[in-house]
Amino acid sequence: MQYQSTRNKSMRFSSSQVIKQGLAQDGGLFVPVSQPSVTLAELADMSKVSYNERAYRILSKFLTDFTEPELRECINNAYTKEKFETEAVAPVYKLNEDTFILELWHGPTCAFKDMALQILPHLLTQSAKKTGENKEIVILVATSGDTGKAALEGFKDVAGTRIMVFYPENGVSEIQKLQMITQEGNNVHVAAVAGNFDDAQNGVKAIFTDTAYKALLESNNLMLSSANSINWGRLVPQIVYYFSAYADMLNSKEIELGQAINIVVPTGNFGNILAAYYAYKMGLPVHKLVCASNENNVLTEFIKTGVYDRNRKFFTTISPSMDILISSNLERLLFDVSGEDDELITKLMKNLAENGRYEIPSEMKEKISGLFWAGSCDDASTMKTIKDTYEAYGYVIDTHTAVGKKIYDDYKDATGDTHKTIVASTASPFKFNQSVIIALEGHQVVAGKDEFTLLSMLSEKSGMKTPKSLADLQTKPVIYDMSCKKEQMQQVVSDFLKIE
Ligand SMILES: *Cc1c(COP(=O)(O)O)cnc(C)c1O
User: Fold this and answer.
1) Is the shortest distance between the CB of 288 and ligand 1 below 6 Å?
2) Of the four listed, 220, 330, 413, 454, which is most buried by Cβ atoms within 10 Å?
3) pLDDT, tens digit, for every residue of 447-463?
């Protein structure tokens, strides 16, 4: 399988090149030149094998320059019972006759980003080797929460890599901060930045674009890389769990082979739902893909009108991992539904960069609305959905998953559709415990309580065990209590890497 850029189709790249490079030179995103397919017979076979074997069968169709032992080693390093606390890795929970919750949060950081970030470091080091790269890879991340911790857990102690994460001093939740400042591993470093997420992100961008600094790193046999969600190595592992969920539903006789399902995805950067789209293109029987947003409803409007317009108010919500105005991975969908029109995509993305807005031609718009349905909701409906779901089924969902559930309910009301439906559950309720407990029991209950009291309250209420990685935070020593100014970030990196 070869790859091309969404902004220039004339060049060809191997999978290890695109994983190592991340973003194309022309600013475009890498996509495969053709879609591999999965037949119904292969799908039926998948129901008989483990998650890791399913992962091998999907990944091997895309990462064709990896040998079988290389790919299996990457997969087996990533998806272990020890890290995911369940044999199934991504189990499906039946909520009612037509709603199935795909639990993507059993990994070490309790959010779905683990599904990709547990395997990416292995794919990346393997890709570096295959492309003759012998420098050590230094991952730099600015995080507003979930990504930083998931990247730290993924890269910790992976030979040939080091990782440094910056988070805004007052811009992450208490649990998220504790998760990062107690991070273990011999190749990791964490620092707070005085300022907000944009300050941290701009600081990291400045380091990436400093050519003198790049030369200094190179003279020390080091190279910078990012664990960004537009890397193909993060996207391709996400295709696996949609096939896996379908295989599980075949096993439990919820569906018959070939029966179409809907997939609902709480969406931010459009990575997770794009993986569902690729699964559909490969042959997974899908009726509709439902894109669920919080009050930051730029995608809802786009799917309904064909106009993408980021010139709007930014809302800080209780589903923070979906607080996004530019959904980068959408570019890959646009490329595909335009019939791979790289010139058009270049023009649209130029409009987005210059005016914050673009409009797609009506044929593209129709293709998208034929398959996708979109909706958005505010925090109050998210909270109500958590409570209603608990009262109806005794099952507790987090704030992101609740947005998905609410939009699915709206979809059913609007269309009367009865296809069985998978709702992607992107975070454990324990990770957003405060909002979840407020939704279930009201504000008064949380007043004055610390994080660990809240975790045990939630465990009692839900009948679910507190994930070990969160419970353990109470006794883990703080390792990284340093904070720096934006101007000092480069020095912090140099100190960590011991270069000058
Ligand atoms: C990152 C994230 C999302 C959004 O996923 P995208 O792939 O960016 O659309 C949703 N929920 C949670 C909990 C996340 O961490």
Assistant:
1) no
2) 330
3) 999 999 999 999 999 99
Q: Given the CA of residue 400, which atom of ligand 1 is nearest to it?
A: 11
pTM of this structure: 0.96
3-class state of residue 23 by DSSP: coil
Task: Please indicate whether residue 204 or residue 119 has the higher confidence score (pLDDT).
Answer: 119
226 phi-psi bin (left φ>0, alpha ψ -120 to 50, beta other) = beta
Q: Which helix (DSSP H) or strand (DSSP E) does residue 32 occupy?
A: strand 30-32
Could you tell me which residues come within 8 angstroms of residue 350 by beta carbon, excluding any fewer than 6 positions away? Answer: none
What are the backbone dihedrals phi and psi of residue 153, each rounded to the nearest 5 degrees, phi first? -65, -35
Alpha-carbon distance of 9 to 33, in angstroms, equals 9
- Beta-strand ranges (E) seen in 76-122 are 92-96, 99-103
Question: Is 264 in contact with 407 (CB distance < 8 Å)?
Answer: yes
Number of neighbours of residue 141 by Cβ within 10 angstroms? 23
Place of tokens 């296809």: 419
pLDDT digits (tens, 9 = 90+) for 28-42: 999 999 999 999 999
Which tokens in the block code for residue 63?
A: 């990462």
Q: Is 322 in the pocket of ligand 1 (CB under 6 A)?
A: yes
CA of 332 to the centre of ligand 1 (A): 17
Check if 113 is active-site. Answer: yes
Structure tokens given for 101: 């919750």
Please state, in angstroms and as integers, the Cα–Cα distance from residue 271 to each residue in 190, 232, 256, 392, 497, following that order.
26, 10, 28, 31, 31
Q: Which residues contact 352 (CB under 8 A, 6 or more apart)?
A: 308, 310, 326, 358
Q: What angle do CA 373, 374, 379 make, to 5 degrees?
A: 150
Query: How many residues are recorded in the chain?
Result: 500
State the Cα–Cα distance between residues 272 and 266, nearest whole angstrom. 8
Distance 426 CA to ligand 1 centre (A): 6
Alpha-carbon gap, residue 427 to 388, rounded angstroms: 18
Q: Centre a 10 Å sphere on the Cβ of residue 61 and count the other Cβ atoms it contains.
A: 18
Distance CA 147, CA 321 (A): 9
Tens digit of each residue's pLDDT (9 = 90 or more) over 290-344: 999 999 999 999 999 999 999 999 898 999 889 888 889 999 999 999 999 999 9
Contact of 183 with 156, CB cutoff 8 Å: yes
What is the spatial order of strands in the sheet that 286-293 belongs to? 92-96, 99-103, 421-425, 261-266, 286-293, 372-376
- Count of beta carbons in the 10 Å neighbourhood of residue 155: 27
* Cα–Cα nearest to 358, from 323, 326, 324, 314: 326
Q: Please tell me if the CB atom of residue 277 comes closer than 6 angstroms to any atom of ligand 1.
A: no
Distance 270 CA to ligand 1 centre (A): 8
Hey, which of 103, 106, 112 would you mutate to test ligand 1's pocket, going by the most ligand atoms within 8 Å of its Cβ?
Answer: 112
Q: What is the mean pLDDT of residues 163-173?
A: 89
